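User: Last request for today: this protein with biotin, please.
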Amino acid sequence: MKTLFIGQNIIRLKRVDSTNNYAAGLLRHTVIYDGTVVSAEFQEMGKGQRGNHWESEPGKNLLISIILEPKFLKPDCQFQLNKMVSLAICDLLESLEIKNISIKWPNDILVSGKKIAGILIENTLRSGEIIHSIIGIGLNVNQTKFNSPNTPVSLKIITGKNFSLDAILENLCSSMEARYLKLKSNNSAPDNDYLQTLYQLGKVKNYLVKGEKISATISGVNPDGLLILQKENGEEIFCDLKEVVFLQN
Ligand code: BTN
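Assistant: Here's the final one, the structure of the complex with biotin:
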């Protein structure tokens, strides 16, 4: 592993309920090195956003949780971690010459509009500090058939090739460390990189906001991580994950 700390300690599991849960258990019971990675071949209860289940065939995809100690970030800057992680996954995909990558707010990575990776970040806050962050990442690598109605994609579906999960993990740890160290020195992830990659930025699309269907454009994400939608009359709406659904146009 060509990194300083992320992935220097890797806990490899065949089967687990969820790598995020396993990482949380470790943090409760042991001293864990910053940058430790928990990796599993299969999850019985892989967790997604909004209480969803994360589906993955055994041994086909990357299922990891990275434990970080971002004590330098104030809790109200937690969304910087989402940005940093999203950009690190985009860097990895770019290094594999994948095209048409976008970040669907707040934490889906898409290729040509289809989901290839999901991120579930669980932070532990204490005394005004983020003492631990469990960065859960599911990246579809070699799986070619999915049951999900959202037709996800994988690296294999896009390129026709099989990939070594170890090589992908090593590459991801490197891009994550580079982005994390930048975040640590600047206290923010680069807004330009994030906005440039943001799915549907500046395009008029339909959204369901608090039950009401509206036509709007995404104009950005505020420092609290709320999505900023601008209606055609110029009015801005700030939404959290529970308040907005992206509708198919
Ligand atoms: C989402 O898109 O809804 C987030 C999915 C996150 C899935 C990953 S797989 C590894 C880690 N362990 C979990 O239980 N979830 C995350």
